[in-house]
Amino acid sequence: MNTDRKALWAVRQSALPAVVRSCPDCPSTRHRASGKIRVNANGKLLDVWLLLSCAACDRTSKVPVHERVHVSALEPARLVAYEINDPSAVRELVMSASLAAKNRYRLDWTGTWELETRMPLYALDDPSPLSVRVGFELPVPVRVERLLQLGLGLSRAEVRRLVADGRIRLPFAPDAKAHRDFELTIHGPGSVDAAKHAKALDGSAAERSDLARIGLPPAPGRELPRRATARG
Ligand SMILES: [Zn+2]
């Protein structure tokens, strides 16, 4: 079986997640990273906080990252990153699931990502399978069928039918959430199972029209690589 055909999809970061926790000064629960990290030294002991701003009233609040940790316990490069408010250190802290769990707040990932696809322009009637590597730039939990809808430009029902027919093969259930790299394969109509299934189905004409849509050149005005903005 020829498995040389490969495509790459990337879940790209477009914003940082919001921190959801109550504000002591107003009814809002949304906080954003202020871009600052505070380090206090007391002799050889350090306290490190991530500073957040309330999205409504701008009140600053502190999330403890390290409490009374010995200076030798932190990598020097990391300590410098904290001291200079290094944006990648801020990003890492605000996206950290363990920091969120430790401090009992939730992360809202809405609007934090978009899908970039680099699909070869191929006819889906090609019987050889196409393997698609999905790479995550950030650990955002995304429903797999949502990625497929965006990546292939299909409705949820169309995606579910292709999965049920074995044309799309996934390492998870389509309604599961992925948050790290995985691979899926899209099989052509020549695959044995799909051919068997198509004969058994009345709706094979409808199925063919779906398949023709996958891999069509982008509509006029759209450019490759395509970017689909996350709505949820
Ligand atoms: Zn507030």
Automatic annotation (TrEMBL):
Pfam families: DUF1062 (PF06353)
Source organism of the structure: Kitasatospora terrestris
Chain positions covered by the region annotation Disordered: 203-232
Record's protein name: DUF1062 domain-containing protein
Entry-linked InterPro entries: DUF1062
